[in-house]
Design goal:
With about 110 residues, the chain is of the alpha+beta class. Helix content is about 30%, strand content about 25%. It has helices at about 5-10, 40-65, and strands spanning about 35, 40, 65-75, 80-85, 90-95. The strands form 2 sheets. The chain has a 3-stranded antiparallel sheet with strand order 3-4-5, with no helix packed on it. Strands 1-2 form a two-stranded antiparallel ribbon. Strand 4 (about 80-85) and strand 5 form a beta hairpin. The longest helix is centred in the middle third of the chain and has 22 residues, at about 40-65. It is elongated, with a radius of gyration of 33 Å. The termini are far apart.
Length: about 110
Amino acid sequence: MCGEMKLQAISGLRKGCEPLAYVTVPKDLTKIKSKMLFGLTKRQLVCFGSAALVGVPLFFLSKGSTVLENFPLFCPKCKQETLINVKQLNMSVIKEPVTADGNRIL
């Protein structure tokens, strides 16, 4: 490599190009994203903690009130659809009248 090419490579200047961005890298990296607990940063711990404070109570409050009524449950093995009701983790199958050709009456 000739002297002029070395100078261009070091300075980042080439004919017809803009100069490259210069970024300083600090020598002391202790202030940058230090791991605190379980290999997580302080910001990650705050975010996960706040998500747990909101999510866990919300899960338990909504768990008891979840109700499925007339939910179509499809069995891929026998290719049939059955309507079910689910309330407080108790499932009941809805028996419907069926026509002669196998269609249900709504």
